[in-house]
Amino acid sequence: MRRTKADAEATRKKILNAAERMFYRKGVSNTTLEEVAKEAGVTRGAIYWHFANKTDLFLALYEAVPLPQEDMIAREIETEAFDTLAIVESATSEWLTTLAKDEQRQRILAIMLRCDYDNDMAPVLERQREIDERHDATLELAFARALERGQLQESWTPPSAARALRWMMMGLCTEWLLFGRRFDLVAEGHEALRRLFASFRQVPVKSLEAS
Known about the structure:
Largest sheet: none
Shape: elongated
Radius of gyration: 21 Å
Number of helices: 11
Structural class: mainly alpha
């Protein structure tokens, strides 16, 4: 039994790896399960033993590597640490560094960005909405705490700050991944985040008086 489970898991991983290569090469809509099976060196029946359909396979691939929203949620932005903005800025900067080094993460995120979310892919889009909502709620809580502690500029509301940060992160990743990596994601991404968070931060009263 132990051997059978190990073999099944190895086959599942082989199918996921093949799907990743084919989806990246041809796109999700243009790839058939027969092509994935051939690439993986397994039968089509083996794919159906593990996955109900192509959407199910795509969802499994989607969940295999944490995307920006899930990574950021995992950070300790709900801790009692005083500088909440520093925690969020550090988490987002670190994620950009990780993305720049992780080729598998790059491929899967590129697949997600290129995908045509038609009727068959609707469950994936719904999953993305769920993640976005949870992610935004967590970030809004962090920015709300920063506001309570006098750290967030009053011109920003927690929802608007959370959206601006998410839009910047997705914009950076989309342009870098889909348009030839024409800039240094780490260096320029960190600088963009530094400037964004500088606009978030409330300037201390003493600093204003000194100037």
